[in-house]
Amino acid sequence: MADFAMPETRYALSGDINIAYQTIGHGPLDIVIVPGSISHVEFNHELPGFAAFLHRLSGFARVVTFDKRGQGLSDRVSGVASLEERMDDVRAVLDAVGSKRAVLLGFSEGSPMIVLFAATYPERVSHLILVGGYANSWRTDEVFEAFVTATVAAWGTGLSMKRVIGTQDGNEREIALLGKYERLSCSPGAFKTLMLMNRRIDVRSILPSVRVPALVLHSRADALIPIAEGRKLASAIPDAKYIEYGDLPHGCFAGACEGLIGDIEEFVTGHRDGAFPETDRVLATVLFTDIVGSTRMAVEVGDHRWHELLDRHDRLAKQTVERHRGIFVKSTGDGILATFDGPGRAVRCALAFGAAAQQMGLPLRAGLHTGEIEVRGQDVGGIAVHAAARVMAQCGANEVLVSRVVTDLVAGAGLKFTERGAFDLKGIPGQWELFAAAQ
Q: Are 429 and 363 in contact (CB under 8 A)?
């Protein structure tokens, strides 16, 4: 479009990683577009229909686009970012553009990440829009391996992205354009690594914790993500609005998507009054610890020495939790309760605290679970808190046990887990798969 100039690319700092982003428009609300498997904020404007898509959205919002770490114009990194690190990147972009509360629009692979972000930081999200999204991998191992092999083999030719963008057969110019998009976004090896990590994503247990208005958009013509995945996603999010289309490709902006944009506009502009209720229920990872054999140790060392050890234990706990960006909720006498907005940091904190306490001669056990908690002033409550305590109760000395939910959410974070089996947790329905954590 002649009146749509290339926006300036800027950088947000997420830890020590530079995240490339652009802003388009000056509307009264912010829409942050979280990309799918690949992206390039500048070359996006060369793709068929994408500039027009952004221009239309910018008519009623300030639109923010960015490249994931390791892709496009953002810093290259070794390995693949975990969902936790991707959340950090979104938050860094929000802070860089001065957005306190934004609409998150996740496309394809971006959907599960923003579900986790919205459940963890509901105060930063006004609306959640999931386009062509999914909650977990649905392909069989054989189908998945064939898909990755074929995609990597054709990487850089444009044929891999052809069905994603919806380019018509025989349009050689557009296929060549898509080939360049692939090459500029990332290498074939990086894409393969990303796909292998995405295979492990599973946010189904988090969907009931989403408390912000959610809109799920999916097309029956989507050749990459089956329509059934969109339907399942919508049905699991409380009060989610679901709209189904008949002819849009996975790369929805490449088709006649005016109807989809109109649905987005209607969804978000109907809530511009800014009257957001205070949130007292959030998603968090809960950590419980205690000292194994504390009563026996207290008798052996005497009251005075025991109180000294407990004081050192509490100081160490607070320092370790703070270093891992957690919230120290309280001491439980011979243990602690803490919460974290990232499950990876919570597991690393538990491992670090246990190792340091062991050097003091204090054998610890630690249990972690991720779920929705109730914030009650300086304290927390809810089933997730009880679950973490019950997980801890299954631990041996110098052991960190986590629930299945935690392992699902830290895929790609470099942590190691060993299966401990299925357990009945006192007072909590069902059997729980538990895993021992290690660095």
A: no
DSSP-derived letter for residue 202 is: B
Tokens 């290498």: give the residue.
187
Which of helix, strand or coil describes residue 250?
Answer: coil
Please state, in angstroms and rounded to a whole number, the distance separating the CA atoms of residues 225 and 236.
17
User: Cα dist. 223→29, 258, 281, 378, 433 in Å?
Assistant: 32, 20, 37, 49, 34
Q: What was the pLDDT predicted at 83?
A: 82
| Longest Cα–Cα distance in the chain | 84
Fold (CATH) for 10-269: Rossmann fold (3.40.50)
Q: How far apart are CA 165 and CA 70, in angstroms?
A: 21
How do strand 379-381 and strand 364-376 relate by DSSP bridges? antiparallel
Mean pLDDT of the chain: 88
What is the pTM for the complete model shown? 0.80
| Tally of residues, the chain | 439
Element (H, E) at 92: helix 83-96
Per-residue model confidence (pLDDT) at position 397? 93
pLDDT tens by residue, 298-347: 888 888 888 889 999 999 999 999 999 999 999 988 899 999 999 999 99
Domain 281-438's class?
alpha beta
What CA–CA distance (Å, rounded) separates 292 from 88? 35
Sequence-separated (6 or more) residues with CB below 8 Å from residue 316: 353, 356, 357, 360
Angle 310-314-319 from CA coordinates, rounded to 5° = 150
Residues of the chain with pLDDT under 70: 1-5, 48, 163-171, 251, 253-256, 271-280
